[in-house]
């Protein structure tokens, strides 16, 4: 285990001890060079994901009754809605910097229970991965600020819906309406 993963585990266990459960976990990453959304042509600004824990119909995780992949998909969709509402500054479809929001594909081979977000999901936490376009040295200050605003909008969209309980009424399958990130299964 890396120092980062040990620290994250301690933090997670401390939050569970204090609050009884950790409802949400947001994992922020940079995905490096960006690809275009399949069939769309927009460059991906942010890719969202829920925990890669194999096929949904698998009984492999039956011993983990708190696992709720739909919860994580609802949370990811709430983040998407926040990006569309807030980062678009009025008309998201006309936003000069929103770019493409995509989702990771979940081929059967993606089964990664050792990832922090996956192990947290096994314990009942709804988790969302944000993969943000580029690295900090790839863009100038303006583009980095725009990408930061997009992520802030996604986190705000999730937080607002968690606060008012509306995240529970979302349809987790709407996550699959987001365009694919652009690689093959």
What does this structure look like?
This protein is α/β, with parallel strands linked by helices and 185 residues long. It contains four helices and four strands. A four-stranded mixed sheet has the order 1-4-2-3, sandwiched between helices. The chain is globular. The two termini are 30 Å apart.
Question: Secondary-structure map with pairings?
Answer:
Blueprint: H1 3-19, E1 24-30, E2 44-49, H2 69-87, E3 100-103, H3 116-122, E4 126-132, H4 141-164
Helix pairs in contact: 2-4
Classification by helices and strands: alpha/beta
Portion of residues in beta strands equals 5-15%
Instruction: Report the order of strands and helices.
Output: HEEHEHEH
List the strand order in the largest sheet.
1-4-2-3
Helical content band: 25-40%
Helix run count: 4
From the spread of the alpha carbons, the general shape counts as globular
Distance between the termini: 30 Å
Number of strands: 4
Show unreliable segments: none
Using only C-alpha atoms, the radius of gyration works out to 16 Å
Largest sheet: 4 strands, mixed
Arithmetic mean pLDDT = 83
State the gist of this model.
By secondary structure, the protein is of the alpha/beta class. The chain has helices at residues 3-19, 69-87, 116-122, 141-164; strands at residues 24-30, 44-49, 100-103, 126-132.
